[in-house]
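2024-03-11 09:14:02 DEBUG pipeline.ingest accepted 1 chain
2024-03-11 09:14:02 DEBUG pipeline.ingest length=331
2024-03-11 09:14:03 DEBUG pipeline.predict start
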Amino acid sequence: MEILAFGVQADEKPLIVQAFRDHHAVRCLGITLDRDTAPVAAGAEVVSSSVYADLGPDTLEILAAGGTRMIAQRSTGFGNVDLRVAEELGLTVARVTSYSPHAVAEFAWTLALAVNRRIVRASNRTRDLDFRLDGLMGRDLHGRTAGVFGTGKIGEAFARIAHGFGMRLLGWDVAENPACMQLGMKYVSRDQLLAESDLVSLHVPLMPETHDLIDAGALKTMKDDAILVNSGRGGLIDTAALVSELHEGRFTGVGLDVYEAEAGHFPLDPALRPVKDDALARLVTFPNVLVTSHQAYYTEDAVRQIVDTTVRNVLDYKAGRRSENVLVPRN
């Protein structure tokens, strides 16, 4: 059996090929899976998709009509999959439940430190042999307050790094994490966390209760010189409200690895599909904003774990086994 993998990055391909080598043939495609590219999968019993795939009803119907019976998503997120339609069509769907939390937590800190110390601006200057320090002043993080939204595995890893910097820790979650409390974290309300934190980092899942968690009111509650980092899901922040606050000159820095309308933009070549999103175009123009292309997970360690889990999901499907990774079971 040959697995057809969509949305495969160049760095990812050798890891996928190696992982499947002793089990099934795999063909890797750089194109994203959607209604326009789904016909390519005709005859493939198993396809593997990335988080950027558009697995809505049209795409799923094309896949099912072409003989696909299993979709192995290479991500934890599955909001891009219409699970109800998949079940109606008899498609098995599995995902990757977890991978290295350190990859995302460390990248969130990369964003925080980069905007705090004006690294991008400094790098751009020195490329022009401009070594002035004007406008590059940052702040010590030691002794300041880090607010962590979501204290699961990733949030805990982020908090441990903050603790290493000597920061005061505030947390917000539906359940308290004892490991975070041992670091000295105090759980508070959303508004208290926002009002007192010098650095706010988002690590909660996207669901109706957390959509626009950081809305216009939340942004107003934050300190004018705060740092905001989002390496979770784009829909956690009201982008229009954020642009409005940035226009008023607020915030030391904003680091965004995700964007609420990133589908169709991340990680595509702009020559193939020009960016026509006004809010995204506006965000990248602010000197205190750093936008990256949903790459927080993108370490060799994390991708290897994602790929290995994907292989196990395919093997489980072929053997008729079910695991916690299955979103829609095999009929």
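2024-03-11 09:14:41 DEBUG pipeline.report The longest strand covers residues 145-149.
2024-03-11 09:14:41 DEBUG pipeline.predict end
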